[in-house]
Amino acid sequence: MGETGEITTQKLRVGIIMGGISSEKEVSLESGRNIFSKIDRRKYDPIPIFMDRRAALWEIPLKLLMRNSTSDIEDDLKEEAKPIPYETLKDRVDVACLGLHGKYGEDGCMQGLLELLGIPYTGSGVLASAIGMDKYVGRQILEIGGIDVPRTIPVTRRQWEKEQATLLEKIAREIGFPCVVKPCREGCSTAVKKVAAAEGLPGALDNAFLWDNVALVEEFLAGMEVTCGVLGVDEPEAMTPSETIPTDDVLSLEDKFLYGQGENKTPARLPAEQIERIRETAVGTFRALNLKGYARIDMFVRTDGRVAVLEPNTLPGMTPSTVLFHQAAASGITPADLIDRIIRAALEVHAGKRGPL
Ligand SMILES: Nc1ncnc2c1ncn2[C@@H]1O[C@H](COP(=O)(O)OP(=O)(O)O)[C@@H](O)[C@H]1O
Ligand SMILES: [Mg+2]
Hints:
The protein has 357 residues and is of the alpha+beta class. It has 3 domains: 12-122, Rossmann fold, CATH 3.40.50; 132-148 and 222-351, D-amino Acid Aminotransferase, Chain A, domain 1 (2-Layer Sandwich), CATH 3.30.470.20; 152-219, 2-Layer Sandwich (Dna Ligase, domain 1). It has 15 helices and 15 strands. Strands 10, 11, 12, 13, 14 and 15 form a 6-stranded antiparallel beta sheet that branches. β14 and β15 form a beta hairpin. Bound molecules: adenosine-5'-diphosphate (ADP) and magnesium ion. Adenosine-5'-diphosphate binds next to β7, β9 and β15.
């Protein structure tokens, strides 16, 4: 980029970072290679960068990019890929396009590293990413902003070991049944369980504690599940919301991400004023949490019409079948345009920074 922001003949080198060490690394691989295939090559020079299970970075050739799974890629990194020590990343890329999801990629850790390296990156900053990953802290902030969220009781592993009886009573009184139990900071429906009665709580909580030291017990939301992408920096705009059609009690990994399995309808089949309320809630959430670039906000339209926020996704899935591309299309935005906007937002945010975001 020239100083005035116009594109010079030199194409911007975009490091597309994928893989990583979270439970969502296979989805991340799909997101990363989809970004790689859809990015506008007249403007950008994409470089696929794989994060291995030790969080080391590698520039991978096409033949590794096309492998079936992250472990298939890991098998041949030493022979086929070029290691990129963190401190050299800035020599290789002008901007980092994050295809990562979940722990260490979406929660502020990677964002902090990129801040230290001085590399612009797509999506939200350190604090917003960390808050976006922590479902409880995020909900408290949204509540202060007047946004409806499910009634929630956070339970730490220590509390559960020491005060089971008190907690069971509190949950029955304040949340009731059915309720939903989940780890505080996970993704892809990992250990998310609908619990019909008190007897189901210990098992569901023990399962959630395999993933985090804090679990949430929350109100089961009835009504229609909807999700809405938001784009922008200072003037965020909502795309066209989708409704999510569940095939089971809670959405599993396959329902949401694997090709052809996702059951979404875009636009959501709701009256115009409801659609508008969903879009306003999505933008309100984006602003309240200080999200940047893009995000997808998952919500429920309650049976009485109120819109409750379930969670923000600060680096939402970018696989070919994910709703973000359907919503973009419904709003007249092609996949290449969507990726372009996300990268331009990263550059804009970086240029205006007065310290880490
Ligand atoms: N409180 C709830 N009420 C109803 N359904 C829920 C609730 N919490 C989660 N679900 C269902 O489970 C899915 C995954 O839960 P979510 O909180 O989004 O976790 P993750 O971060 O793993 O995506 C949601 O998309 C929704 O279908
Ligand atoms: Mg979710």
